[in-house]
């Protein structure tokens, strides 16, 4: 592997994928929290909350992520002056995390909502009959079951999130796709090897993750 | 279960008051936030007339935005047709009883679902020409990349759809003497296809968003023409991006509405639709 | 060698055509050329001279660089575009026969190598590494990496960039140079210079760096009048060349001749005045002694 035997290139490769990991980790947590809140809003008794949740989902999931990340830099940071770190690279990293999270949260919310729909109506009715409030019904009866039903879809959201982190490259973070571009620019003759290494790394990580979530979903499936 | 109505009781007087308070507080918060955003944009001069004026000129629409939309739709439509064919072939391949067919088909589908689309398109545009000794036009780089990714997603959805058809139906078909290919053609695929309609429309939204990758290989789509080139002419990149975002949202919102409508219709016709995979709906990844 | 026969036939055709074309023109610079319409040549022929003789020429240009190569609606404008017109004229074809193809920095070599375009005139710096893949005519302009800063900025040299935020384009040579030589600087990367300019206008970055001529193109835009200045101390040499296929020496020589003629007959100056010259910068002298030998 002539390209990667050069330590500079190898370090760039490693650091590119480290950024992917960090972006995925931070955004996954934030998107999960946001997504649960949004799903709660979308099924809540308060119309304005339902309206807000629906607007969020419809706006963010219909916009290309490139544009969302772009607005994080030129909207949040440049125009609204929201600075997330004094260090340029870290600032871009966190702006990227915000963009990925608001986008991914829309999909987490939709996955949870369809999960909620798998819980038989009788259970929520029974919960209400014994006097549980809306938030108790959701917390104690519905979400724990919906949570198991959404393991597979959420796993697939996580995988998509990991691939989508490459988009943060558009605001300058040197993540895997930017490193690949750079390496191809510098070593045009080894384009195929470079592609196979980068694509292979993604595949080697994400395919097992996909199978793991499939296995987990099967194991934890609510027997009905 | 219908979440909106089953999860809580009809609000009584106290709940009504509480909901009203929540509505007012939350609504006020949102309005305050929107006003603050408006003020910040105004202070930074983002509403200046010169920055928005280009979008009132017919020429800007005629020369940049409409051709951009055309490029986006053309690539998305072509990729959709090809992805459906790809999906059908590989789902049947994966369901084959011959391991020498099902295993490679599985590997292909899994691989293309795991690789960020950006990497794919970049490779098709800059790597494949070395293999085939001839250039790949930007349009085809984008379309092939989109086809491989979305075709793989559709293959999985197709497979789920075919599996969802009750086994009794194919058993009955075999019993009346149909061959395997006939069972596939007359019994399984038509029903799977109907069950898949929502997924297909949802992937169309994905395709429309993912064509935005085209600018990397200088394919003239909405993001390249409507944002990058417009901004190079008028220096209004933020405004151009807002206009482009609104256009994407309008088109995709209409498509999502269609998907929901098809979902309901499919349900009513007694076929259980293949659920839309939220991860797949997030796009192929990579500068989307 | 599955391509041998095809390649040999093509090579023979090229040779025949280039010789014919050269014979017609006899090296007379911007002569009338072999005439358009007549004889129109073999449409399968390769080589720029042969392509020009057939009446169409595909030229790779930038679409988003004001003053150099900018897509304005259905047409393109800028200094690079004027160069393309001069060359087309010198090759004896109509301006309307030029087909502009948008290129980005990363695909210029592949586009030439794979025949997507016949010529690349797209702020294309001649360097040794690229010379191994493509041939260069020119240089038709000597650019240099420089800095664009707000008018009130105190930055006067790249050495003062330590701790400052500098914007450039992902994967570009200027970005690499800052990264390697001026490591104190914080590098902000985007996929297009127009985004860097927006960030500079909003003071998210302290400077934008790339070739001085590109920066001048931005600084001369009416929106930015009085807001930005080019520092004016280039810290690299970027000779802009015209890229064409590696084996097409005949066309390369021919283009150099056309450029030499353009330097003396005023068409080079006219091209400048029509585009980048609008900023008030007088046309540079085209130093023909620095031309490549098309080896």
Automatic annotation (TrEMBL), chain A:
Top-level division of the source organism's lineage: Bacteria
InterPro entries with a match to the protein in the record: AA_ABC_transptr_permease_3TM (IPR010065), ArtM/GltK/GlnP/TcyL/YhdX-like (IPR043429), MetI-like (IPR000515), MetI-like_sf (IPR035906)
Spans through the membrane: 12-39, 51-76, 88-109, 149-171, 191-217
Bilayer topology: Multi-pass membrane protein
Main localization (coarse): membrane
Subcellular location: Cell membrane
Keyword annotations: Amino-acid transport, Cell membrane, Membrane, Transmembrane, Transmembrane helix, Transport
Domain ABC transmembrane type-1: 17-213
Record family assignment: Belongs to the binding-protein-dependent transport system permease family. HisMQ subfamily.
Protein name (record): Glutamate ABC transporter permease
From TrEMBL, chain B:
Gene3D superfamilies documented for this protein: MetI-like
Keywords assigned by UniProt, alphabetized: Cell membrane, Membrane, Transmembrane, Transmembrane helix, Transport
Lineage: superkingdom: Bacteria
Transmembrane segments: 20-38, 71-90, 111-132, 138-158, 195-217, 237-262
Keyword rRNA-binding on entry: no
Domain ABC transmembrane type-1: start-end pairs: 69-259
Subcellular locations according to the entry: Cell membrane
Recorded topology in the membrane: Multi-pass membrane protein
One Pfam family hit: BPD_transp_1
Family named by the database record: Belongs to the binding-protein-dependent transport system permease family.
PANTHER family: AMINO ACID ABC TRANSPORTER PERMEASE, MEMBRANE COMPONENT OF AMINO ACID ABC TRANSPORTER
The protein's name in its UniProt record: Glutamate ABC transporter permease
UniProt lineage: Bacteria, Bacillati, Actinomycetota, Actinomycetes, Micromonosporales
UniProtKB/TrEMBL annotation, chain C:
Keyword Glycoprotein: no
PROSITE patterns given in the database record: PROKAR_LIPOPROTEIN
UniProt cross-references to Pfam families, sorted A to Z: SBP_bac_3 (PF00497)
Source superkingdom: Bacteria
Domain Solute-binding protein family 3/N-terminal residue range list: 56-279
Keyword Nucleotidyltransferase: no
CDD domains, alphabetized: PBP2_GluB
Keywords: Signal, Transport
Signal peptide region: 1-23
InterPro entries: Bact_solute-bind_prot3, Solute-binding_3/MltF_N
Family named by the database record: Belongs to the bacterial solute-binding protein 3 family.
Identification of the protein by name: ABC transporter substrate-binding protein
Organism: Asanoa siamensis
């Amino acid at each position: 592997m002539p390209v990667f035997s050069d330590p500079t290139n190898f370090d760039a490769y490693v650091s590119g994928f480290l950024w992917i990991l960090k972006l995925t980790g931070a955004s996954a947590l934030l998107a999960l929290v946001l997504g649960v809140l949004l799903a709660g809003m979308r099924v809540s008794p308060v119309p304005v909350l339902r309206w807000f949740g629906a607007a969020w989902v419809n706006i963010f999931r219909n916009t290309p992520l490139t544009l969302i990340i772009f607005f994080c830099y030129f909207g949040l940071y440049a125009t609204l002056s929201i600075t997330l770190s004094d260090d340029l690279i870290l600032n871009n990293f966190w702006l990227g995390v915000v963009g990925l999270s608001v986008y991914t949260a829309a999909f987490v919310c939709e996955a949870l909502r369809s999960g909620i729909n798998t819980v038989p109506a009788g259970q929520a009715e029974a919960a209400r009959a014994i006097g549980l409030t809306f938030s108790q019904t959701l917390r104690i009866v519905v979400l724990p079951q919906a949570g198991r039903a959404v393991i597979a879809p959420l796993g697939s959201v996580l995988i998509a999130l990991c691939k989508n982190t490459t988009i943060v490259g558009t605001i300058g973070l040197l993540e895997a796709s930017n490193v690949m571009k750079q390496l191809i620019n510098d070593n045009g003759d080894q384009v195929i090897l470079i592609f196979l290494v980068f694509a292979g790394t993604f595949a080697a990580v994400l395919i097992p993750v996909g199978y793991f979530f499939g296995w987990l979903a099967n194991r934890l499936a609510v027997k009905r | 279960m219908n979440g909106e109505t089953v999860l809580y009781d009809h609000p009584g007087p106290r709940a009504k008051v509480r909901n009203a308070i929540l509505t007012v507080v939350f609504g006020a918060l949102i309005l305050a936030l929107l006003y603050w955003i408006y003020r910040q944009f105004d202070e930074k001069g983002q509403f200046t007339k010169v920055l928005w004026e280009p979008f009132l000129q017919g020429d800007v629409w005629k020369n940049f935005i409409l051709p951009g939309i055309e490029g986006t739709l053309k690539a998305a439509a072509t990729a959709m047709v090809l992805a459906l064919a790809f999906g059908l072939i590989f789902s049947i391949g994966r369901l084959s009883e011959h391991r020498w067919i099902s295993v490679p088909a599985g590997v292909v589908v899994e691989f293309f679902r795991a690789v960020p689309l950006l990497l794919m398109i970049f490779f098709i545009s800059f790597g494949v020409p070395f293999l085939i000794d001839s250039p790949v036009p930007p349009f085809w780089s984008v379309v092939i990349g989109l086809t491989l990714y979305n075709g793989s997603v559709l293959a999985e959805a197709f497979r789920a759809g075919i599996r969802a058809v009750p086994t009794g139906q194919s058993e009955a078909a075999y019993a009346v003497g149909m061959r395997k290919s006939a069972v596939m053609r007359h019994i399984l695929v038509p029903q799977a296809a109907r069950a898949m309609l929502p997924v297909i429309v949802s992937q169309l939204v994905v395709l429309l968003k993912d064509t935005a990758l085209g600018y990397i290989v200088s394919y003239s789509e909405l993001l390249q023409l409507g944002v990058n080139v417009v901004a190079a002419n008028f220096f209004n990149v933020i405004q151009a991006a807002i206009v482009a975002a609104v256009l994407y949202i309008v088109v995709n919102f209409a498509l999502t509405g269609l998907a929901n409508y098809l979902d309901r219709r499919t349900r009513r016709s007694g076929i259980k639709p293949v659920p839309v995979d939220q991860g797949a709906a997030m796009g192929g990844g990579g500068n989307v | 060698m599955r391509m041998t026969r095809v390649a040999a036939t093509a090579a023979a055709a090229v040779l025949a055509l280039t010789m014919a074309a050269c014979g017609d023109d006899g090296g007379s610079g911007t002569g009338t050329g072999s005439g358009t319409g007549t004889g129109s040549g073999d449409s399968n022929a390769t080589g720029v001279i042969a392509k020009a003789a057939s009446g169409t020429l595909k030229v790779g240009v930038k679409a988003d660089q004001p003053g150099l190569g900018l897509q304005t609606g259905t047409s393109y404008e800028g200094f690079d575009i004027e160069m393309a017109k001069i060359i087309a004229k010198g090759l004896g074809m109509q301006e309307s026969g030029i087909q502009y193809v948008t290129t980005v920095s990363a695909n210029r070599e592949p586009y030439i190598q794979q025949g997507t375009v016949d010529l690349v005139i797209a702020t294309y710096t001649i360097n040794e590494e690229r010379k191994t893949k493509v041939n260069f005519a020119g240089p038709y302009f000597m650019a240099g990496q420089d800095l664009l800063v707000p008018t009130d900025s105190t930055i006067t040299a790249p050495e003062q960039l330590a701790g400052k935020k500098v914007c450039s384009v992902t994967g570009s040579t200027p970005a690499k140079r800052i990264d390697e030589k001026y490591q104190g600087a914080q590098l902000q990367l985007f996929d297009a210079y127009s985004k860097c300019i927006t960030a500079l206008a909003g003071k998210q970055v302290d400077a934008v760096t790339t070739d001085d001529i590109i920066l001048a193109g931005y600084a001369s835009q009416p929106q930015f009048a009085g807001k930005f200045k080019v520092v004016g101390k280039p810290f690299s040499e970027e000779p802009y060349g015209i890229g064409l296929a590696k084996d097409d020496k005949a066309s390369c020589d021919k283009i150099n001749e056309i450029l030499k003629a353009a330097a003396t007959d005023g068409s080079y100056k006219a091209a400048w005045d029509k585009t980048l010259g609008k900023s008030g910068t007088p046309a540079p002298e085209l130093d023909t002694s620095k031309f490549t030998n098309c080896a």
